[in-house]
Specification:
The protein has eleven helices and twelve strands. By secondary structure, it is α/β, with parallel strands linked by helices. A hairpin with a 2-residue loop joins strand 6 and strand 7. Helix 1 packs parallel to helix 11. The chain starts with a strand and ends with a helix. Nicotinamide-adenine-dinucleotide binds next to loops.
């Protein structure tokens, strides 16, 4: 029997619809060559929903997501005024306990990078830390934000990262600012050490966030699996995307026990909206990560191989890769390679 996966597709804001539609084309091409079906269910979410629904995550969309096996999410614009709805990504990570944000950082052929042959992964705790969104104004001009760090969430993300390290080079670096944030990062550090006891084969390095960001530029090959708290992971993974190539190539998975949400690392890049100019590869690779997580490893590999083949050929390059190709030309080039595989 042919297996069917229900996938929620949220196109998002800004460049979101362009990169998501490009990814759907690639997913449909790989589906035709595979022994599974994708039942794509489109939902509305993002900044553009606020005038109509009063929220960026309408309850109809939340219900739709709950009926699916995974979510492909385009980037969304996040309002910045106090009291505005929080980021949809952050809300979904919390509702579905998508505690592990996995951001692979790899060099690709013909893509300029700081060093050749890089391949490491940033694993970011996704449910707490400075993304608690719990802020208040104590007095005019005096504000606080709660940085919540728990043993439970830290142990969970550390265990996830150690398991990933076991499948890779058995090397893990945990990143914190324990010299200043002694109590919160003390909890995080203790949890990593507790998890480490179950993975004696993994070599472990310990770094402060400031040193780690510097090291990422100076000696990125020193990393394999990096595990860290929420905000540090967000910043390190954007930096890593640029070190290895372009934000336009960086994909991320948000993984929980029962659900997975897959999205590009980049945001909605509003200034490029509707210009058919940005690189869809980050979202296409997020689609591949989704198939991999659903258990469709061959189909996921077909997409990644197709992306590598297009980049290796070097004929179709978007502006971030110093080329002139459009978003749809890049998508079509990947589709052609998938069909030829
Ligand atoms: P951004 O990632 O949207 O854009 C920064 C720059 O990166 C762009 O100007 C562009 O030069 C480059 N870039 C991004 N995507 C690219 C692509 N696919 N191809 C080529 N170049 C690309 O970051 P920002 O400007 O800080 O944020 C814009 C909005 O997106 C904000 O509202 C922010 O909150 C939101 N955001 C959303 C998510 C998400 O939905 N998960 C993530 C990050 C930012």
């Amino acid at each position: 029997m042919v297996k069917t996966y229900k996938v929620a597709v949220l196109k998002g804001d800004g460049i979101g619809p362009e990169v998501t539609e490009a990814t759907v084309k690639v997913l449909e091409a790989v589906e035709q060559k595979a022994n599974f079906k994708l039942d794509l269910r489109y939902g509305e979410a993002g900044f553009h929903c606020i005038p109509r629904y009063g929220t960026n995550l309408p309850k109809e969309t939340l219900e739709l997501i709950k009926q699916t096996d995974a979510c492909l999410k385009g980037p969304m614009t996040t309002p910045e005024e106090p009291g505005a709805p929080p980021s949809v990504a952050v809300t979904l990570r919390k509702i579905f306990t998508l505690y592990a944000n996995v951001r692979p950082c790899k060099t690709y052929p013909n893509v300029e990078s700081l060093k050749p042959d890089l391949d490491f992964v940033v694993v970011r705790e996704n449910t707490e830390g400075l993304y608690s969104g719990d802020e208040s104004l104590l007095a005019p001009g005096v504000a606080v934000a709660l940085r919540i760090i728990t043993r439970e969430a830290s142990l969970r993300i550390a265990t996830f990262a150690f398991k990933l390290a076991m499948q890779r080079k058995k090397h893990l670096t945990y990143v914190h600012k324990g010299n200043i944030l002694r109590i919160t990062d003390g909890v995080f550090k203790d949890a990593v050490k507790e998890a480490q006891k179950n993975f004696p084969e993994v070599e472990v390095d310990d770094m402060h966030i400031d040193a780690a960001t510097m090291q990422l530029i100076k000696k990125p090959e020193a990393y394999d699996v990096i595990v860290t708290t929420n905000l540090f992971g967000d910043i390190l993974s954007d930096e890593a995307a640029q070190v290895t190539g372009s934000l336009g190539l960086a994909a991320g998975a948000n993984i929980g026990e029962k659900y997975g949400m897959f999205e590009p690392v980049h945001g909605s890049a509003p200034k490029y909206t509707g210009m058919n100019r940005v690189n869809p590869i980050a979202t296409i690779l997020a689609g591949a990560m989704m198939l991999d997580w659903l258990g469709e490893k061959d189909a996921a590999a077909k997409i990644e191989n197709a992306v590598v083949a297009v980049l290796k050929e070097g004929k179709v390059r978007t502006a971030d890769l110093n080329g002139t190709a459009t978003t749809s030309q890049m998508a079509d080039a990947v589709v052609t390679k998938v069909k030829a595989a």
